[in-house]
Design goal:
This protein is an all-alpha fold. The chain is built from 4 helices and no strands. The longest helix is centred in the last third of the chain and has 27 residues.
Length: 132
């Protein structure tokens, strides 16, 4: 059993690293119709919305199978973040258009980048990784 202190520590470190990986991808890749302020906000806000579910809720719903957990989380996070981004920043511009599709692809790419970094960490530093 993981202590509450270790869980919070791991959560804060993981969230911070996710933002450090995803935010630059979003800042550089989101369509030009979004201001730099909007892009920076998205880099922090989108992860803040999905990371607690990915790290605190889903592991408890899917104990035992890492591959099922990864498939669920790596589907949930980009889909949820694309929806949130659409609702907050795309929908006011009208129907989904080419810049919106670019935004969704970039959000998915940012999630893939942080996933790959997390998997690399999982392999290279197993003693530093919380494992169920």
């Amino acid at each position: 059993m993981v202590s509450a202190h270790e869980l919070v520590r791991s959560f804060v470190i993981g969230y911070t690293l996710s933002v450090l990986i995803e935010a630059p991808v979003l800042v550089l890749g989101l369509s030009p119709r979004h201001s730099l302020r909007c892009r920076l906000f998205a880099g922090i806000w989108l992860t803040a919305c999905t990371y607690p579910i990915v790290c605190l809720v889903l592991p408890n719903l899917m104990p035992g199978s890492r591959s099922v957990y990864l498939a669920a989380t790596e589907t949930f996070a980009p889909v949820a973040e694309c929806f949130l981004f659409w609702a907050a920043f795309v929908q006011p511009h009208g129907p989904v258009d080419r810049p919106a599709l670019r935004d969704f692809a970039v959000i998915t790419l940012a999630n893939l980048a942080s996933f790959l970094a997390g998997e690399l960490w999982y392999v290279l530093a197993p003693q530093a990784t919380l494992r169920a």
